[in-house]
Amino acid sequence: MVVGSGNHANRICLHLLLLLLFSVNVAFAGTLVTSLPGFDGDLPFKLYTGYVNVSTGNAEMFYYFIESEGNPKEDPVLLWYSGGPGCSAFNGLIYENGPLAFNMSGYAGGLPQTYYYKYSWTRAASILFVDAPAGTGFSYAGAGSGAFPVTDTETAAQVYEFLRNWLAENPDYLLNELFIGADSYSGISAPIVVKQIIDDNDAGVTPRLNLKGYILGCPRTDTDINENSKIIYSHRMGLVSDELYEATKEACNGSYTSVTSSQPECYENLKMLEHCTKDINKNHILEPKCTWTSPEPHGESVRRALEEEADGGLALPSSDPDFFCHTFGYALSYLWANDLTVRIFDWKRCDKNMSYKADVSSVIDYHQNLSTKGLQVLIYNGDHDLIIPNIGTQQWIKLLDLTIVNDWRSWLVDGQIAGYTIKYSSNGYRLTYATLKGAGHSPQEYKRREAFDMFDRFIHYWPL
């Protein structure tokens, strides 16, 4: 993202505004947020915000740190950032892992209300949410850095340096177990961050980071495997016919990426297959694809949200009470951020126009390397996700050639099947793979309670 002097000034104003609105004096290298617009009363948990400078791109990385609601001195610390690329960690805080949620029932305009969500991952760990890379959320490239097209490797460098600098400013958490967490597109950069931590620990860089493992939700891992798995998944879910699938598989030799018109039969079959799924909601194949909008949006901020999220199918409430659009919740983030009591400058939930260059197509080799390091790993998918299908994730995990220690079985929440899981091991490396039944992309947004139980069991080394 290219940040000019005007936007740089806006970011400084934003930081000062946040300090004025939320700050109290505390012994912590950040600002303690005791209340938020739209939340009734004081926050029932400790939320800190702030900026950490990193040298890559002279970036100022914005974070939310929520102290564990359990035992913060002993509970693990989870670093978490979102995918996109360019999606703010606000996603995790409000929609996925954090202790806040928007009240979407009966919204009638004005400032959206938030409430305390009890099945937060912060019940079991402290979570450090970071807007990464620079240009995402409130994070920005510093003045004088010029054009800064971020790449996958630069994202990993920013996240790693941010983490090390943050821990240097907050050394009380150095001894806590550390996990790296990310979802969706950030499945590319997160394993690079993990390897960098291990390499520097092995090289004797101090302070040593107490890394124990990593957690990846619906992670993009290998471009070819991910794209091919969409075809297989579409067939298995009955979105394309047996005849079309088999004909396409034969014409394309089972490879559906980088196909051109020089392969006419494969090319035409893929066009027909694409036609079968073009009106499917790729985030959750059973939910409506919300491309409609309210005829009279509630003000300029809603119109802006509709424009910025149009490709994702943003929608306002329908007059039909039985029709619910999942992405309406995203609109509330724009309404909240642009309310006069908040007034955040040019904030986007996901910045689709940021200057980003993908320079890593596969991180399977990183996972292969990490499988020799004795880490605890959790990988999970929603089983109704056509963005990162579970089929592809299971395929690349099998390429790691790990030993199955607990074969495929269901896992339960409140006596009901919440999904399916399998556990692998190799010389102290433990990888748990899980699906969340009925969930889309990202899974926590659809099955928040079940996702908490999954995380809670994993982080405490309990069987899923």
UniProtKB/TrEMBL annotation:
Leader sequence residues: 1-29
Organism: Carpinus fangiana
Alphabetical keyword list: Signal
Any single GO BP term: secondary metabolic process
Pfam family, any one: Peptidase_S10
Source domain of life: Eukaryota
Family: Belongs to the peptidase S10 family.
Name this protein carries in UniProt: Serine carboxypeptidase-like 18
